Amino acid sequence: MEFLLDTVHIEDIKKYARIMPLSGVTSNPSIVKKEGQIDFFPHMRAIRAIIGDQASFHIQAVGQTTEAMIQDAHTILENVDDNVFVKIPTNEAGLAAIKQLKAEGVNVTATAIYTKFQGYLAMSAGADYLAPYYNRMVNMNINADEVIGELANQIARENSTTKILAASFHTVQQVNSAFEMGAQAATMGVDILKTGLSAPAIGAAINDFTADWESLYGKDSTIASIAKQPLHA
Length: 233
Ligand SMILES: O=P(O)(O)OC[C@H]1O[C@](O)(CO)[C@@H](O)[C@@H]1O
Fold this sequence. Notes:
The chain has helices spanning about 10-20, 30-35, 40-50, 65-80, 90-105, 115-125, 135-140, 145-160, 170-180, 190-195, 200-215, 225-230; strands at about 1-5, 20-25, 55-60, 85-90, 110-115, 130, 165, 185-190. By secondary structure, it is α/β, with parallel strands linked by helices. 6-O-phosphono-beta-D-fructofuranose binds next to helix 2 and helix 7. Its main location: cytoplasm. InterPro entries: Aldolase_TIM, TAL/FSA, Transaldolase_AS, TSA/FSA_arc/bac.
């Protein structure tokens, strides 16, 4: 199971690289826009420096034609590093770009996936990751669970190395569901992580444990402090 962050906000990436089992970072032009007019390549290299070589880093091509996407891919690899997964939208131009980039040995994430058909084609073209858009499918009355579940079944049937990197999440429940349907990876904004880890019930349970502990050993006592001053020494 891979958890990725769907942001290029440096402080958030630094913070959550410390907190979570971070498998990678994803971005797209809309995510980049949230940071304002950043110096694109130095910013991307700074993200790589934070997440390290073992994490997967997904950066999107913006060209509209096959040739433009391939040129974008080469430029990204030259200016960030060779391990980047270049995100290519799964339309006709994109599929042709995926085929060519895979023939060159480039890491590719097929993105903008709303249907099984797009996913099957991108898988056949050799994409390393498929990025189905969970919440956008839900908004279009497409059964996101079914799409992800069937893509996962096909991966299993073919013993394929392609992985599902589910994306476009608006709720914690959607992330759980994508994993349960067989996605190997999910990318999410920090809002999802904050919501999932800060439910009032979690804080209430921690407060109760603290109160019980302190009623026994005194205010601000810790495991370390009672080890230094054992009650029955
Ligand atoms: O629907 P949204 O929230 O814009 O998300 C689109 C998704 O597509 C991606 O570009 C795919 O990786 C993600 O970065 C993003 O989660």
